[in-house]
């Protein structure tokens, strides 16, 4: 039975509130803006049809909230409202009709049509022509003072020229360009960190960083378009005059806006904007139609959430159809074979798309994507387009279901080596550790900032060094002198480019790397499941790779799933045998606990770690380290009783952005006090140190009853 209108309204309110929270407070949206708007539209329609169920606290009546602990709250002089949206031409015409009625006129209205920027709203205040502060929208009445972070943004005029209003609020949007977004994500990747999903979330997270120096590492941009409070009030007679004034005063402004007389002309401009907007530096998701004259805007007035004098027309996300010419298989650092769609180039949202991600073989099967198919692709706010579906009617005769194994003729497409698909694993893997793309990516990873920090070995250099067989495995780098590296050609034969000074720097960085702690070396190897946190945790208990290789406890932990499986396969009646297995499992758990080994070091980690260290490749690595005389210093301070402090034995998990500490600083502070930082929340976590835009860990901690504390709480209890 379909839900009653009342039930559906309640469902929608809960759903919308959840998605608002994910989007605003956790920077982790689960659905696209378009899908979100569709939920709101459905709710609005239901509330309109059933006014008896209207409620003051409905999301359709509220402006959200974005306060971050650690930022000062500042009241806006004029409210920062939202805009009423539509995806429908008819509703835009309705808006025009309503305005005419409201203002009691039959004549044509003067409108301004502007791009709707998909950024982070900001309010800049000028007093007597001097820039004084920047504040987020917040709840519309008051927001967070982000002046320190905004000061890094280029282009904001600090002093206005000529005759200026005594008080002026200028509204705009902060955004991140696609180029900067790609740069930041590349850095994330090198650091072994997950990529940010889209530029808007990253920009929102960046303005709310409590450490301005950290915020300054990411380049933000700004565009201004709106008038807030102004004294004297009639200083700007229209939106178009205000736009011109912004430009004269060197504010960064939208590259295009237009004036229209009447809704027909406005509609034509909305459509024209759709053809221009993909060339802009910022992302846009619609057009805003505004009544031009300020005096008329005042007469039209405001609703609690929106002005009556403006309306946003949102463009539905664009999709395109194109032919899937083939499926390219890319080999990743760990040998995973990733299928990528090779598409007949097609224009989508202003760029030519020839590639789209296909995730893995299971995804391809689920959508039944076949080579030769016509497929529908969509960008939907994300950077990498995705194949959404197949247009079955256009399937050519003879198109065959996709099999990755057959597609690559049973061999790695890069090296011809053996491939394997592990049980319960969606991806195929190349088993040859010498496979060239794997070797190059391993070298790049090895040299990344958070690994051994050998600056100068980025993608290009790593590919050149490995393809020329100067480096066959990362440790080779330690046996090449600076002069040899300087003479390496990283260009090609026709346009050579020598490594030069960078080569000497690489050699010097290798010398420095020799003294880095064991955890950095362990992380640098790039063993699957052994990331930064796990590496640190492991090196607290083991003071060498050799100890990890031979640890009986780690070996036992890795057998746990097999024991559990055995137990589950025994008939319920075989109590004695089940009991023996239960005891064995419990014993392993107890032993791990007694040795202070957290749940993070689980079976998968142990299997992967010991699997590598005991493999031929691992043995070679260990022997080579020995030969090179590299003995990474252990971080194993707990075992030597060197760690004291109020937090000994306490496990912390970090989430979100903290007021003034970066993640690394927080880690260092906790560790200095004897505590540990773990990567995921479990029952054994003592504290979740949560900042703004906390992620799913927050909910998990709540669920498990883990104590959640802020940076402030931390400082009060344990000092800095
Ligand atoms: S006018 C009171 N113009 O979109 C009038 N807003 O979804 C409200 N936005 O709150 C704003 N581009 O943060 C206006 N050209 C534009 C805009 C724009 C983006 C943002 C703004 C607004 C939100 C509503």
Provide a descriptive summary of the structure in words:
With 720 residues, the chain is of the alpha+beta class. It folds into six domains: 5-53, Helix hairpin bin (Helix Hairpins, Orthogonal Bundle), CATH 1.10.287; 73-314, D-amino Acid Aminotransferase, Chain A, domain 1; 319-430, OB fold (Dihydrolipoamide Acetyltransferase, E2P); 436-513, 5' to 3' exonuclease, C-terminal subdomain (DNA polymerase, domain 1, Orthogonal Bundle); 519-628, no CATH class; 651-718, Rossmann fold. It is built from 26 helices and 22 strands. The strands form five sheets. Strands 12, 13, 14, 15, 16, 17 and 18 form a seven-stranded antiparallel β-sheet that branches. A five-stranded mixed β-sheet has the order 2-11-10-3-9. A hairpin with a 4-residue loop joins strand 12 and strand 13. Helix 17 (518-525) crosses helix 18, helix 20 runs antiparallel to helix 21 (575-594) and helix 20 (552-569) packs across helix 22. The protein starts with a helix and ends with a helix. The mean pLDDT is 89. It binds 2-(butylsulfanyl)adenosine. 2-(butylsulfanyl)adenosine binds at residues 81-83, 114, 116-117, 121, 173, 225-226, 288, 307, 310, 312.
